[in-house]
Amino acid sequence: MDISSTGLRVLRQIAESGSFTAAATRLGYTQSAVSRQAAALERSAGTALFERRPDGVRLTPAGLTLLRHARTILDCLTEAERDLTGAVSRTELVRLGLFLSAGAAILPLALTRLVATDPQIKVTTTEGTTPSLIRALRAGSIDLAVLTSRPPHRPLDGESPRLHVETVTDTELVVAVPSTGEFAGRTAVHVDELIDAPWIAAPASNAEPLLGVWPGLPGRPDIVHCARDWLTKLQLVAGGFGVTTVPSRLSPVLPSGVSLLHVEGAPPEIRRVLVARLPGRPTPAITAVTRAIVSTT
140 and 12 in contact (C-beta within 8 Å)? Predict the structure, then answer.
């Protein structure tokens, strides 16, 4: 096979982003350039590497096989570049992905503990939804991911081999409300009282439901604001402009003017926080970062 490093980078980015368009944007290429690279890869491999679906692009079994080798090849090229330029790394790098609320609830404490125990490790972070972070793990763009799952906690994706997963903690979902007004002084709210409440939610996608609306809410929610950023959502709550669903682990970082209420009249909504990596023997740095994350509970 005659495959270029550019083609392998395109393969990895398509696997991570789930579409040719998103891969082109992240790589700084035109979509037609990405399509040409994808076609050239398939010609060289002599088989289909990409499965075009209504909700995006997935790698075929052959594509996943090539991706596994691409990760190794691209890592070797990066090491070769360091050797040729004489760059000596004094730190061990771990690329960590986190679902959106984990940055506030887990990351600072984990990094603080890591600095005390393993100061030679450098952690870089990126945020994303659980599906996008799983794709990034499979693509080799990140080394470790903090993810969330809901009961019955099935395997995170249908790919093989399965990701190596450790449980960090289970956390209950609650509703963040203004500390003043109709919910003032309360510790719980019945789900029926939330039907007509103004909701602050994150935008939905094909892979993720509308985040922020209570999962078991009867009827159609009244969504008044859409925001992905947690600080924006919680400040809107503090200002009295709506309510939103949050994991209870966010309680230490709530802004003034926000209270958390347990929801009655509906089954508890529990989410599991997980740390995941590719299968196989982890590096000592990845093991240390995993240990720091798990110790935050």
Answer: yes
